[in-house]
Amino acid sequence: MTFDELGLNDLIQDALYYMGFEKATPIQEQAIPAILDKRDLLACAQTGTGKTAAFILPVLNELSERPSKRTRCVVIAPTRELVIQIDQQIQAFSYFAGVGTIPVYGGTSGKEFEQEKKALAHGADIVVATPGKLITHLNFKYTDFSQVEYLILDEADRMLDMGFHDDIMRIVKHMPKTRQNLLFSATMPPKIRSLSKAMLNNPFEISIAISKPSAGILQAAYLTHDEQKAKLIRKLINDKPAYKSILVFSSTKKNVGTIVRAISKQGYEVAAVSSDLDQKEREAALRSFKSKQTRVIVATDVLSRGIDVADINLVINYDVPRDAEDYVHRIGRTARADTTGVAITLINQDDMYKFSKIEKLIEQEIVKLKVPEEMGTSPEWNPKKSSYGGAGRGKSGGKSGGRSGGNRNKSNSRNKKR
Ligand code: AMP
After folding, report:
1. 3-211 homologous superfamily
2. Three-state SS for 148?
3. Is any ligand 1 atom within 6 A of the Cβ of residue 245?
4. Matching CATH number, 217-385, of 1.10.10.10, 3.40.50.720, 3.40.50.2020, 3.40.50.300
5. Residues 335-390: tens digit of each pLDDT
6. Which residue's alpha carbon is at the smallest distance from atom 5 of ligand 1?
7. Ligand 1 atom, smallest distance to 48 CA
8. How confident is the model at residue 196 (pLDDT cuts 50, 70, 90)?
9. What is the pTM of this model?
10. DSSP per residue over 202-268, as a string?
11. CA 310 to ligand 1 centroid distance, Å
């Protein structure tokens, strides 16, 4: 379906044209008319489905038709990276729609806090925030959410996992009771159902996500002992000179440093993203990876959802993620859209049971390889012997700073350019 058929106004059509969006994705086809129809929404959809535009476009459509100086839409997302990404997408579209946006997230300086404070006090049309940092601002009482018309929760399951339920409820108390609520979640566990019951009014339901990796991902696993992992990663990277973008996931922050050292030893450009780094370092690392200046990036699960980097050729899981869903999110960073990609998971004895749960979830048996002979012997595949749980994972929360954004330039040159 084309966007013309979805009832979006000319300003938005211009933006879509310049962004190169020609056809709506399935979630956009379903969500946009429902949102324009003022329905609450409960959407089960993962990153990569086009869910961000699915909620941004109809909201911008409405806000662009009624300019105002008040905050009318609040988007809450679990991590700073996701907040930045949503804010950037809004900025790209709102160049045409003339709607202002401000990102509010954590880990920034006093100066940036003051910028956020100024923007919140004056009212930006759309505020995109992590829950913790938004609460900090709300506590100072200069933020006015009394005119909010839209509340959007993105990656709601992730936010509940990170313990943000009470923060979300406190934020909601600052908003009018009558508003449109849009809840997006990659999974639909009972706690999301309860949140939806508490917050949504007769929601229109959409389910796009299925927890299956895309068919374009070639998956394999190596059975390894921990001490073989560094060597194996080096070999995997060495053997694939054609792979220009490689993403290595670690469940723990501690191992991120170990992996970075192992890779840089070989002279490769490698960056890291974990909550141990300050915000500027994380942003710089992501920028250089996205622009292909850095070939390898090592990350904790903070990157597994929500972050959109094009053309990742290879995802290496240094360990098996605790939740089977996270596996799908991690390897979903490769083979976006119609491209192909490779995902390789390193499995030690302790992780075998977890990996067998993943295979069950994705209804697929993954080929298990032994380490090359020169590295010694592999453990035998025996999922029953391993303990469930393993090491805790290094989730990082996006609690808190920012910069204001928003363009008010209007243009209607799409038709002319055509
Ligand atoms: P999301 O699932 O929102 O993270 O979107 C994934 C990627 O798809 C982003 O880079 C979007 O800019 C892009 N995208 C979303 N919708 C469309 C569309 N209809 N046509 C082309 N690209 C899209």
Report:
1. P-loop containing nucleotide triphosphate hydrolases (3.40.50.300)
2. coil
3. no
4. 3.40.50.300
5. 665 567 899 999 999 999 999 988 988 889 999 999 999 999 999 999 987 654 33
6. 50
7. 2
8. very high
9. 0.64
10. S-EEEE---S---TTEEEEEEE--GGGHHHHHHHHHHT-TT---EEEE-SSHHHHHHHHHHHHTTT-
11. 11
Which token pair is 252?
Answer: 């723990």
The reply to whether 217-385 shares the fold of 3-211 is yes
pLDDT band at 206 (very low <50, low <70, confident <90, very high): very high
Quote the ligand 1 centre to 341 CA distance (angstroms): 18
Model pLDDT, residue 303: 61
First to last CA, the chain: 19
Domain boundaries, the chain: 3-211, 217-385
Q: Work out which ligand 1 atom sits closest to the CA atom of 24.
A: 19
- β partners of residue 106: 400
Q: What is the 390 CA–ligand 1 centroid distance (Å)?
A: 35
Calculate ∠ Cα 103-118-139, nearest 5°. 80
